[in-house]
C-alpha cells in the first residue's frame, strides 16, 4: 500500500508540477526508496525462517524454536471443531465434528450475534441443552463481529500465528490480554461442548501452557511451508 | 413459584425451573397457539418473543424466562390484525398450519428490525423455520405484503 501511495503521490505531483515548480523528480525518487525500505522492514525474518511478532516483547526471553513448537500444539486446538466452528472463513458458522455449515445457515450479522429471528441466543442457551443434537450453550455465544472476523478456517500455522499476534486482526489485543484470553469463558466452553461432541485434542491445562509458552517466548510464527492448512 | 409475564399478564406457576418454557405456556398457562415441533431448536414451530427476540421455547428453560417479557402468537396483536396476520389471511399462506405461529413470530421480528426486507433478508430471517407443507413461496409473498401494509399504516385490507 505504501508503494502504491507513493505512485499515487508521484502521479499527483507530476500533474501539479507545472503550477507549483516543486522538485518533483527528487521527491518521487525519495518516496519510492523510503517506501521500499518500509515494505522490506515488515518482512524481516530471523535466521531460522520464522517470522517475528508484531507485538513488542521487550522483557521476554525470546526462543523461536520453543515458541514455534508450542504454537504447533496451539494450532491443533485452534483448528479443532470446537474452536474453528465459530471462526469460519464465511459468514455462516460451522457445526459438528466434521465442521459442516451450520444447518439453517444462521448469519454472522454486524456484531457476530446473528440477524433478525436468527440470533445465536435464540437457540443457544446460557448453558448446554442436554441430549444429542441439542444446542450447546454459553451466556455470550457469538461469532467474531463482521469488522474483526478472526478467521481460523483454512489458515496455515504461519498465517494463524501472524494473525493472532497482529492487534489489527486479533481484536486489538496486546500480549497480556492474549495470555489472559486462554481462560476466556467461550474458550473454556470448548472443553464443555455438550453431549456427543468431541473435545479438543488436549486438555485445557495443556493448551493454556502451550499458548503461554508460545507467547512468552516471542510468539514466533512457524515457517510458511511447515504444515498445510486444514480445510 | 415462578413469575412469568406472558402477553402482558402475570402468571405465577409452580413448576420445576428447568421445565421448557413451551411446556409451561401450553400445559400450565393453557396458551396452545405455540406448537411443539422437534424439541431441539431445529424447526422453529415453538418460537415466541422473549424481550422482543425470537426465542425457541422448547429449549428455553422457564427459569430463563422469569421476569422477561414473553409474547406468544395469542399476544402478537390485540385483534389478530398485525400486518403479518392480515397478509397471511389475505394470501391464505398456511396449508396444515402447524408451523405458522412460529413462522409469524419470526417474521414479526424481521419486520420490526427491517420494515422493507428484500428476498435475501427474508431468507436470512426465516431460514430456521421449517414448513413441511412447503408454503415458503407464500410466506415470502405475505411478508412482502405485510411490509407494504406496515409502511402504509394499513392494519386490515378488508
The CATH architecture term of the largest domain in chain B is: Roll
CATH topology value of the largest domain in chain B: Ubiquitin-like (UB roll)
Q: Which consecutive residue ranges of chain B, at least 5 long each, have pLDDT under 50?
A: none
Strand arrangement in the largest pleated sheet of chain A: 1-2
User: Uncertain segments of chain A of ≥5 residues (pLDDT<50)?
Assistant: 1-22, 38-45
Structural class of chain B, by secondary structure, is alpha+beta
Q: What is the C-level CATH assignment of the largest domain in chain B?
A: Alpha Beta
Largest interface: A-B, 20 and 26 residues
Number of strands of chain B: 5
Separation of the first and last Cα atoms of chain B? 44 Å
Measured between the Cα atoms of the first and last residue of chain A, the distance is 29 Å
- H and E order of chain A: HHHHEEEEHHHHH
Determine the number of helices of chain B (DSSP H or I, runs of at least 4 residues). 6
**What overall geometry of chain B do the principal axes of the alpha carbons give?**
globular
**How would a crystallographer describe the biggest sheet of chain A?**
2 strands, antiparallel
Structural class of chain A: mainly alpha
Our count of domains of chain A comes out at 2
Number of helices, counting only DSSP H or I runs of 4 residues or more of chain A: 9
Mean pLDDT of chain A: 83
| Tally of individual domains of chain B | 2
Query: What oligomerization state is this entry in?
Result: heterodimer
Question: Can you summarize this structure?
Answer:
Helix content of chain A is 40%, strand content 3%. Chain A is mainly alpha-helical.
Provide the descriptors you would attach to this structure in a database record:
heterodimer; A: 231 residues; mainly alpha; 2 domains; two-stranded antiparallel sheet; disordered N terminus; B: 158 residues; alpha+beta; Ubiquitin-like (UB roll); DNA polymerase, domain 1; five-stranded mixed beta sheet; 5 strands
Amino acid at each position: 500500500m505504501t508503494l502504491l501511495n507513493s505512485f499515487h503521490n508521484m502521479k499527483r505531483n507530476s500533474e501539479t508540477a507545472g503550477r507549483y515548480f516543486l522538485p518533483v523528480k527528487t521527491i518521487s525518487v525519495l518516496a519510492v526508496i523510503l517506501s521500499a525500505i518500509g515494505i522490506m522492514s515488515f518482512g524481516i525474518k530471523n535466521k531460522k525462517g520464522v517470522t517475528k511478532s508484531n507485538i513488542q516483547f521487550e522483557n521476554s526471553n525470546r526462543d523461536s524454536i520453543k515458541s514455534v513448537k508450542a504454537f504447533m500444539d496451539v494450532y491443533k486446538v485452534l483448528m479443532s471443531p470446537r474452536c474453528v466452528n465459530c471462526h469460519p472463513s464465511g459468514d455462516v458458522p460451522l457445526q459438528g465434528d466434521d465442521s459442516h455449515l451450520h444447518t439453517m445457515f444462521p448469519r454472522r450479522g454486524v456484531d457476530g450475534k446473528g440477524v433478525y429471528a436468527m440470533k445465536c441466543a435464540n437457540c443457544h442457551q446460557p448453558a448446554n441443552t442436554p441430549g444429542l443434537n441439542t444446542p450447546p450453550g454459553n451466556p455470550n455465544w457469538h461469532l467474531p463481529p463482521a469488522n474483526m472476523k478472526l478467521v481460523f478456517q483454512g489458515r496455515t500455522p504461519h498465517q494463524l500465528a501472524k494473525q493472532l499476534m497482529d492487534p489489527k486482526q486479533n481484536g486489538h489485543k496486546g500480549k497480556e490480554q492474549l495470555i489472559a484470553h486462554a481462560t476466556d469463558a467461550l474458550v473454556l466452553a470448548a472443553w464443555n461442548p455438550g453431549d456427543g461432541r468431541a473435545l479438543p485434542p488436549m486438555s485445557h491445562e495443556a493448551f493454556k501452557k502451550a499458548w503461554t509458552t508460545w507467547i512468552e517466548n516471542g510468539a514466533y510464527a512457524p515457517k510458511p511451508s511447515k504444515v498445510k492448512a486444514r480445510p | 413459584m415462578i413469575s412469568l409475564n406472558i402477553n402482558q399478564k402475570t402468571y405465577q406457576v409452580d413448576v420445576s425451573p428447568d421445565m421448557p418454557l413451551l411446556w409451561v405456556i401450553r400445559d400450565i398457562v393453557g396458551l396452545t397457539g405455540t406448537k411443539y415441533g422437534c424439541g431441539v431448536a431445529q424447526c422453529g414451530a415453538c418460537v415466541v418473543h422473549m424481550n422482543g427476540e425470537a426465542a425457541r421455547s422448547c429449549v428455553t428453560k422457564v427459569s430463563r424466562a422469569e421476569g422477561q417479557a414473553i409474547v406468544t402468537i395469542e399476544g402478537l396483536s390485540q385483534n389478530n390484525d398485525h400486518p403479518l396476520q392480515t397478509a397471511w389471511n389475505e394470501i391464505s399462506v398456511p396449508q396444515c398450519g402447524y408451523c405458522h405461529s412460529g413462522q409469524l413470530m419470526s417474521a414479526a421480528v424481521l419486520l420490526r428490525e427491517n420494515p422493507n426486507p428484500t428476498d435475501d433478508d427474508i431468507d436470512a430471517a426465516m431460514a430456521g423455520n421449517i414448513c413441511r407443507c412447503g408454503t415458503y413461496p407464500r410466506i415470502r409473498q405475505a411478508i412482502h405484503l405485510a411490509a407494504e401494509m406496515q409502511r402504509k399504516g394499513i392494519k386490515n385490507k378488508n
